[in-house]
Amino acid sequence: MSAYITETLHLANDEIATLVRLPARANSRGAVLYVHGFVDYFFQDHVAEHFAGRGFDFYAIDLRRYGRSLREGEIPWFTTDLAEYFEELDAAVDCIRADGHDCIAVLAHSTGGLIAPLWLNDRPHPEVNALILNSPWLELQEGWFLRTIGTWVIRGIGRVCPEWIVPQTLGSVNSESVHKDIHGEWEFNTIWKPLTPQPVRFGFLAAVRRGQARLHKGLNVRCPVFVMHSDESRLGLKVWSPVAMRADTVLNVEQIEQWAGAIAPDVTTATIPGGMHDLFLSAEPVRKRAFAEMDSWLESHLIDMPSPRVD
What we know:
Rossmann fold; disordered C terminus; alpha/beta; single chain
């Protein structure tokens, strides 16, 4: 890994989150804060190096009970309220401001791409000048029944027995497509991001459905938003196949396109052909396209932003 600086953020109820920083190689143009997805943590060195090489101090947060923040005895990746994560996101912004930045772009993936808009809607930070979403989880990628009647069941069980496990587990096709020892290019901690199917708990799924319902009614994120997704979904794969290397096997990309406009008054979307769920872990030509689309949008929206503060 690159020369990261790691800081533990102490939260309420004796919990912790972890902020990871890679300083820019040259004079900083601002900062980027990365927010990971479900059953995930920050390990994408090449994303950090991409921004650092372009003059941005790069920060990534491992949310409570995820990755570097996971402690013995905790249920990993579990919450009953997505707003719980707002505390560490606020703390991360405080740390970034303390480093001298008044210009922050937030980059969030998958479940992080749902959490971040809700956070910025409820707790707007004037320092956050741009929001970039990489395959955000804006809708339940299931049929009509589970998105309607089934959601009431999910919410009911989630309220009474939040730790109960949903019968359908989170599949492993996406992780198998990413890890270098199987079909992918990337190395990561398989305790923090397992290669085997993982359980989803009712309390967590109910929290997600509440957050998605709020988003569907319309949020008012005050900064420009850029939403990227693949051009194709291949959901329901039980066994890995080569198609998993060129499609989103986790989320429905049509739903992402459908609901992106509900995030903010100013939303731009981009379709990345051949993209996997995490566009930046896709095949090299695809991820280069994703970086180029993001850089072009970010450049056009950073032109009038303030320079980093010098104390």
